[in-house]
Amino acid sequence: TQTQPQSTTPADPAKAAAIRELSREHVFVSWSAQAKVDPLPLAGGLGARFWDYEGNSYLDFTSQLVNVNIGYQHPRLVAAVQEAAGRLMTVGPNFANEGRAEAARLISERAPERMRKVFFTNGGAEAVENAIRMARAHTGRHKVLASYRSYHGATSGALSLTGEARRWGTEPGLPGIVHFWGPYLYRSTFHATTPEEESERALAHLRQTVLAENPQNVAAIILEPVVGTNGILVPPPGYLEGVRALCDEFGIMFIADEVMAGFGRTGKWFAFSRWGVRPDLITFAKGVNSGYVPLGGVVISDEVGASFEETPYVGGLTYSGHALATASAAAAITIMEDEGIVDNAEQLGSDVIGPALAELADKHAAIGEVRGLGVFWAVELVADRQTREPLGAEKVAAVVQACKERGMWPSPVSNRLHLVPPCVMTAEEAREGIAALDEALSAAL
Ligand code: PMP
Q1: What CDD domains does the annotation carry (predicted)?
Q2: Which terminal residue of the chain, N or C, has fewer Cβ atoms less than 10 Å from its own Cβ?
Q3: 78-129, pLDDT tens digit by residue?
Q4: How far apart are CA 95 and CA 146, in angstroms?
Q5: Ligand 1 close to Cβ of residue 124 (< 6 A)
Q6: Of the candidates 422, 441, 444, 442, the residue with the CA atom closest to the CA atom of residue 58
Q7: CATH 3.40.30.10 fits domain 13-73+341-444
Q8: How far is the CA of 282 from the centre of ligand 1 (A)?
Q9: pTM above 0.95, yes or no
Q10: Where exactly does CATH 3.90.1150.10 map onto the chain?
């Protein structure tokens, strides 16, 4: 039974076919074997729904690439972008600009104390490149430690930091990068059985890695406070605090990559704030303006910033703090604050998504674990609950297809379904989406 709520775009299958044809002919698609990829043409969206040209509407549990935190076509944000476009479309970094100044203030006000400056980029990968460059210049050291279970972006340095398999194709990559294992209790590297044990052992392993690399050569440890693409892994108690303490002990910069977790995804402006740690550098992108215009950046502690007061920072971008991008960020943050959108994400997680997924896990043997917070959830699908063997790709694909047929669009990553809706999703929409997943699991497996 396919649900097809009304969209505001009239069905136009001929248009969809034309877009598909042109795309197949001329568009080179990210991360894909070009002959095997054929993305659905999108016609429009509003709030937590998007729709195609065939008259099908979907509850969005992807937020595109986990970035549309404010939802589709938020009327106030669309109006702010239009207004900014009417003033002055482009202002380079050699001139000051109102939107850039305002966005930087609003971002730094949401960061910990004494993190007053923001360097703007066009997206997350460039933010990561600049954060590690700043850490290296500030410390005079060259090594950077990153987790195996991480994604930090697809430019050369960011992909070298990325721990998962997508790094392999571009190796040897950037020199001086060393990987370590972070906590993941469900598939523990450390044979831990409790969150406390996992935290303690992961910290011992990280410490050993730092010592083996010579702490005097380690500029930074970069990590996602809540790991995103590689599993939506919420850190166990004490882990982030332990990383902070280790960094303090050896003068290492703590870079929190908040590109995915930041700006509402976890129900907070920044995920690390849940654990009370203060990073030295914060990378952000995605949710800062929900990708209405490309934007990313680095929030810089006053200590790191001091290194570049008299000595120039070697780095820059033509579009650093682009007028439209920063005006949209200033507007997005103001709207999210006014409308309680970050709090909505928090409550949706604790009151609706969390409990509903726990119920599903009781009911379906294929669910090994559900975990997450805010609007940042993973459903880990397994072939066998005892051995925790991941569910096979064909079966996962069947579940995904069954969800889509029921008007719910999840984000599959290996054997997991990531459920990462816009922060503006309503409780009713979340329940409807999870009910569709419930049916889909019964139908497909
Ligand atoms: N860091 C993290 C944690 C991310 O999730 C991503 C994107 N998924 C990036 C960096 C890279 O961001 P972008 O694609 O904007 O370059």
Answers
A1: OAT_like
A2: N
A3: 999 999 999 999 999 999 999 999 999 999 999 999 999 999 999 999 999 9
A4: 36
A5: yes
A6: 422
A7: no
A8: 13
A9: yes
A10: 13-73+341-444
Topology annotation, domain 75-338: Aspartate Aminotransferase; domain 2 (3.40.640)
Check: CB of residue 287 under 8 Å from CB of residue 328: no
Question: What is the position in ligand 1's atom list of the atom closest to the CA of 124?
Answer: 12
Could you tell me if 284 and 119 are in contact, meaning their C-beta atoms sit under 8 angstroms apart? no
CA of 65 to the centre of ligand 1 (A): 9
> Residue 259 Cα, ligand 1 centroid: separation in angstroms?
6
Q: Does the beta carbon of 294 lie inside 6 Å of ligand 1?
A: no
d(CA 327, CA 323): 6
Q: Is the confidence metric ipTM above 0.90 for this complex?
A: yes
pLDDT tens digit sequence for 122-164: 999 999 999 999 999 999 999 999 999 999 999 999 999 999 9
CA-126 nearest atom, ligand 1: 16
Residue 134 Cα to ligand 1 midpoint, Å, equals 18
In the chain, ranges of CATH 3.40.640.10 domains: 75-338
